[in-house]
Amino acid sequence: IYILGIESSCDDTAAAVINNGVVLSNVVATQKIHEAYGGVVPELASRAHQQNIVPVVHEALRKANIDKKDVSAIAFTQGPGLMGSLLVGASFSKSFALGLNIPLIGVNHMQAHILAHFIKTEEQAAPNFPFLALTISGGHTQLVKVTDYFEMEIIGETLDDAVGEAFDKSAKILGLPYPGGPLIDKYAQLGDPDRFPFPKPKVGPLEFSFSGLKTSVLYFIERETGADPEFIEKNRNDICASIQATIVDYLMDKLKNAVKKTGIKEIAIGGGVSANSGIRKALNDAEKSYGWKTYIPKFEYCTDNAAMIAMVGELKYKQQMFSSPDIVSQARMKF
Ligand code: ATP
Ligand code: FE
Question: The whole model's pTM is what?
Answer without folding.
Answer: 0.95
